[in-house]
Amino acid sequence: MSEWKEYKLGDVCDLLDCLHKTPTYVKEGYPMVRVTDIKNGAIDLNGCLKVSESVYHAFLKGYYPKVGDIAFSRVGSFGNSSIVKKESKFCIGQNTTLIIPKKIDPFFAFYYLISKDARAEIDGLAGGSTQPTISMKSIREITFPYPPLPEQKLISETLSSLDDKIDLLHRQNKTLEALAETLFRQWFVEEAEESWENGKLDDVISVKGGTTPSTIKPEFWNGNIHWTSPRDLSNHNSIFLFDTERRISERGLKEIGSGLLPIGTVLLSSRAPIGYLAITEIPVAINQGYIAILCDKLVSNYFIYLWCKANMPDIENAGNGSVFQEISKTTFRSLDFKIPPTEKLKLFDKEVEPMFQKIKSNAKQIKTLTQLRDTLLPKLMSGEVRVENN
Fold first, then answer.
1. DSSP 199-241
2. What CATH number is attached to the domain comprising 137?
3. Is residue 163 one of the residues assigned to a domain?
4. What is the pTM of this model?
5. pLDDT tens-digit profile of 74-131?
């Protein structure tokens, strides 16, 4: 990498600051990308709040974002980057900035900004005692490796090809899950019959709760047993849970009455918030923020996963609590359940199992590709691994 140079971001990019005021949001209008919408990836406008046309134009300051521009968060969850991958009409909100690459490949700039080296530098440039903040001046000071432009493009194309494959698999999984949900509604909501037996959830599944071993006793932690809290699902984008942030020891497991739950357990977060869902692909112990659903009576885990999604408003409404909403295991067990015929349940499982198996296979590929990308990223950005132009 002897021919690589080094520049500051301000040397190779322009920056667009936003208006520092809170706008009035509307139901229909133009998306505004705020700090919470910037998550180290492509910009997803689906969850953005909307602003009126006049606010949209005011916040744009005469510049309309284009493919390759990078939204960058400045306050709170600072230092995250999202790149524009397709033509879109949006504006950036307060506490964000738009990085406009001029003398650098846009995707190379984006991938460097999400690299560990850039993250370490960005963290060091932030200030603020109440909320961490990175100033516009400091953003311009971020240093960039600068290989020749053809090599920049080869690096960004290599990483983008992996991200494109990951994105395709995510979209396939969303489509498959939506299809399974549609079939569930058709079979068990639209075609439900009055003759079906009225029961309770407790009639068709078993539930268990968990706890957190004392965190001041190191002998309970850092073993080889997976232990999960709803935090593992807060940014989880797969039906299946393959790993956990923390692990406990055999001694820690003895502190949890529900013990080690089997593969295939359906996890439902029961508080703060109610509604995260996953099917375990590992034996796992759980904390007190979950209801663990064991399908050991009548229905399958695929069925109950879809049932929970379809009935989530009722599950949430059954919760209570003055500090935060929570649904207890007792309340969950007692929810009304219309019991379909066993043969219908078996036929439904036969229909949806291939969908869930494909989702699982795709999720495993996503995990592998993500690990490959994360391994390659720092090596490509440092010049340790070079990309040849064949």
1. EEGGGT-EEE------TT-GGGEEEEEEEE-THHHHT--SSEE
2. 3.90.220.20
3. no
4. 0.88
5. 999 899 999 999 999 999 998 999 999 999 999 999 999 999 999 999 999 988 767 8
